[in-house]
Specification:
Blueprint (H helix, E strand, L loop, with lengths): L1 H25 L7 H12 L3 H14 L5 H12 L3 H12 L6 H17 L3 H11 L7 H13 L3 H10 L6 H24 L3 H11 L6 H14 L3 H11 L4 H17 L6 H9 L6 H13 L3 H10 L8 H14 L4 H6 L11 E3 L5 E2 L15 E3 L8
Antiparallel strand pairs: 1-2, 1-3
Helix pairs in contact: 2-3, 3-4, 4-5, 4-6, 5-6, 6-7, 6-8, 7-8, 8-9, 10-11, 10-12, 11-12, 12-13, 12-14, 13-14, 15-16, 16-17, 16-18
Length: about 400
C-alpha cells in the first residue's frame, strides 16, 4: 500500500510538471492582430495620433500578453500629453517575468521617459540606474540621462553626460552628442557673458575651445565678453577677425558693439566693419540701415543713400527694418509731406525675442539650447512676440 501511495505521489508530481512545461513551451503564444497593429503605426506616422491610440487600445485589450502594442501605446500616450497613463503601461511591462534583454531595455527607457515628462527626475534616475550596465550603447539612454540632470538643474552633470556619450554610442550617433555638448556649453557661456559673469563664461568656453562644432558661436561669446568689459578695441577686433563671414552672429553682436563704442566716444569705428559686412551677399538689410544711420550722424547722406541703393530689392529691407533710419529723416526734415504722414503712423517695432521653433518658448537673448523641450539650435529671432509665447 505504501508503495502504491509513493507511486501515486510521484506520478501526480510528474503530471503537474508536464502540465507546467506544456503551458510554457507548447501553449500557443498570443498573436497580435497584425493588420490592426500595422494600421495603427501607419496612422501614427501620418499624424493621426488619436485614431492610432484608439486602435492600439483595442489591440492590447484583445492581446493582453503582447509586448510591442503595449510599448507603443504608452509612447503614443506620452506624446499626446498623457504621461500618467503611459507610466502605468510601461511600469507593467517592466514587471513582466519573461522579457528578452532588448525588451527590458526598451520598456525601461520608455518608463524613464514617461517619468521625465512628469518631472519626476529622481525616480527617472533610479530607473536609468537599473539599465546602466546594459544600455550604454543606446542613444536614448544618454538622452534620458541628460534630460534627468538638466530637468533637476544639475547642469554640470548634464554637460558631463553629453561629453561622455560619444565614447559609448555608435559613431553614427556620436556626432549628435558632440554638437549637443558644444551647443549646451556655449548656451551657458553666452548666458553668463550677458549676465556679466565673465569667469563662468570663460570656463564654459574653455570646455569646448578645441571642438570644431563651436564655429562662430565661441567668437560671439568672446566678443560679448569684451564689449561687457568696456574693451571696445578687443570687441571690434574679435568681430572683424571672426564674425564678418557670419552675418547671424554679427547681427546679434552689433548693437552691443555700438553701445560699447558709444560709451567710449568711438562709435564711428564700427563704420569700416559695417562697410565690409554689407558687401557680403547674405548680409542682412539691418547692416545697411545701421550703416546709413552712422553716415547720417556724420552728415554723409549721399553715402547713406548709396548703401541703401545697393540693397534695393532685398526681401528683408522692409519698413520695419528701416524704421530707425526713417525716424531720423523725419526728425531732420519735419516739414515734408512724408514727415507729416509719418506722425499718423503706428510703426510696429520688430520683435527681438528668440523663439524655439519646437515648443514656442521665447527668450530675450540668443539661445542654442531650449530648457523647456531640450532641443538644440532651434531658436530663431522674431518668430513670435513674447506676449503670445
Amino acid at each position: 500500500m505504501s508503495d502504491f501511495l509513493t507511486w501515486l505521489v510521484v506520478g501526480s508530481a510528474a503530471m503537474a510538471a508536464a502540465v507546467v512545461l506544456w503551458r510554457i513551451w507548447v501553449r500557443p503564444k498570443p498573436i497580435v492582430n497584425t493588420d490592426d497593429y500595422q494600421h495603427a503605426l501607419q496612422l501614427w506616422i501620418e499624424g493621426e495620433r488619436d485614431e492610432a491610440a484608439a486602435i492600439l487600445r483595442r489591440v492590447v485589450q484583445k492581446q493582453p500578453d503582447a509586448f510591442e502594442p503595449f510599448l507603443y501605446l504608452g509612447n503614443l500616450l506620452r506624446e499626446l500629453g498623457d504621461a500618467g497613463h503611459a507610466v502605468v503601461l510601461h511600469r507593467g511591462l517592466t514587471m513582466r517575468g519573461e522579457l528578452s534583454p532588448g525588451q527590458k531595455i526598451a520598456s525601461g527607457l520608455a518608463l524613464a521617459e514617461d517619468l521625465l515628462a512628469l518631472g519626476q527626475y529622481t525616480e527617472a534616475g533610479q530607473v536609468l540606474d537599473t539599465l546602466q550596465r546594459h544600455a550604454l550603447e543606446n542613444k536614448r539612454y544618454w538622452k534620458a540621462r541628460f534630460a534627468q540632470h538638466q530637468g533637476a538643474n544639475e547642469l554640470p552633470d548634464a554637460a558631463r553626460v553629453l561629453k561622455q556619450a560619444p565614447k559609448h554610442v555608435p559613431e553614427r550617433d556620436a556626432a549628435w552628442f558632440r554638437e549637443a555638448y558644444a551647443s549646451f556649453q556655449l548656451d551657458r557661456a553666452v548666458g553668463h557673458a550677458l549676465a556679466g559673469e565673465a569667469g563662468e563664461a570663460r570656463a564654459r568656453l574653455h570646455d569646448v575651445e578645441n571642438m570644431p562644432e563651436t564655429g562662430s558661436r565661441a567668437a560671439l561669446v568672446r566678443a560679448i565678453l569684451a564689449a561687457r568689459a568696456d574693451d571696445p578695441a578687443a570687441a571690434l577686433g574679435e568681430a572683424a577677425d571672426n564674425l564678418l563671414d557670419h552675418p547671424e552672429e554679427l547681427d546679434i553682436f552689433l548693437p552691443m558693439l555700438q553701445d560699447a563704442l558709444l560709451r567710449g566716444g568711438q562709435f564711428t569705428r564700427t563704420i569700416p566693419l559695417l562697410e565690409t559686412a554689407c558687401l557680403a551677399e547674405n548680409a542682412p538689410a539691418s547692416f545697411a540701415i545701421d550703416l546709413a544711420i552712422l553716415y547720417e550722424k556724420l552728415d554723409q547722406r549721399d553715402k547713406a543713400q548709396r548703401i541703401l541703393t545697393l540693397k534695393a530689392g532685398q526681401p528683408d529691407l522692409t519698413p520695419n527694418v528701416a524704421a530707425p533710419y526713417l525716424r531720423m529723416l523725419v526728425r531732420d526734415n519735419p516739414d515734408t509731406a512724408f514727415a507729416r504722414t509719418w506722425k499718423y503712423l503706428q510703426m510696429p517695432k520688430p520683435p527681438v525675442d528668440w523663439v524655439c521653433g519646437t515648443c514656442g518658448r521665447a527668450d530675450e537673448r540668443v539661445r542654442w539650447f531650449c530648457p523647456d523641450c531640450r532641443s538644440f539650435r532651434s531658436h530663431r529671432r522674431g518668430t513670435r512676440a513674447r506676449e503670445g509665447a
